[in-house]
Amino acid sequence: MNNKVLCNVQLLLPDRIVPSATVWIRDGKIERIESTLPSAAGEQYERIDGRGQWLMPGMIDVHIHGANGFDMMDGTETSIQAVSRACAATGSTSFLATSVSSAIEDLLNMIRSVKRVVGQEEGAKIAGIHLEGPYLNPKRKGMQNEQYLRHPDIGEMKEIFREAGSLIKMITIAPELPGGMELISFLKKREVVIAVAHSDATYEEAKLAFTAGASHVTHCFNGMRPIHHRDPGLITAAFEEQHVSLQAIVDQVHLHPAIIRLMHRLKGAEGMVLITDALQAMGMGDGNYIFGGHQVTVSEGVARLEDGTLASSTVTMNEALRLTVDTGISLTDAVQMASTTPANILGLRSKGKIEPGYDADLVLLDEQFRVVWTMIDGQIIG
Description:
The chain is 27% helix and 28% strand. By secondary structure, it is α/β, with parallel strands linked by helices.
């Protein structure tokens, strides 16, 4: 039955929490919301008791590489489906399949595998593809494999678009590289979210990029020129530009809690996005992995290259939500950063909110932020 009534839930809205709410769902859409318990659901609706737990909009992870031992760059549908299931199990109802810098054929194979899965997802829906590279600065490469880093190439970018088409939703670049500004102009015409990271851009170079059309910063503070009082860099430029939003990896490793609070204070929940940036070790635990052509060791949940460089994350979205609240940010703002803001950035007009007419993409959480169930298009997954 695709018609449901969710009773006795604490509804997490952008501006408040509604206790003992009821959400009516018809044909995969939110039909109406009531602040009281229904007297009777009727035979047309399946009644589901939320037991007083939190109901929030499905989270949207705009930056994830792998999970449960699977790396989406391997070019297989199996890996894409594994990440789809892992996202749903941890509270995401949509995600961007995210690449790492690679040879062009490996990237095209990844894109082809995503195309085969779209519309057939076993868990969270694919909202598109996020290309992290390969047009990144070796000086700020982080875990990106330097042998695959190159200057922006419009001809190569056209080849990528011929294969991926409108699936490309976000591209992370270093705008200071030769050809960077031309690439921004090319991407802006295609309405792609242009993100900046793995960049050594100066304040002035970043300002030019943001004026030209860049509007997002990938894993802010990581993989970029740091702030200095005589060399403010791209982070300060992003703080000054109202239209620029920031990704945050909240895992107790990539960002100090004070930095998370600073980002929130300057940008607000509408300008911050929680991400996992997870590699295939998410959900697997400590051990050795191959990621982006590198040997990666995960110890106590922290992934590093042999030289100690951080190599993505193992955090899940529901854990990132909990850790964000632990920094002192309100639960409603944290929910907005995990659900509403990424939906707005990606132009997903029917997702990211619990309002009549929106998709019934919902997550029920207990007070420890554990996922009780995830609902996608009105159907509980798993």
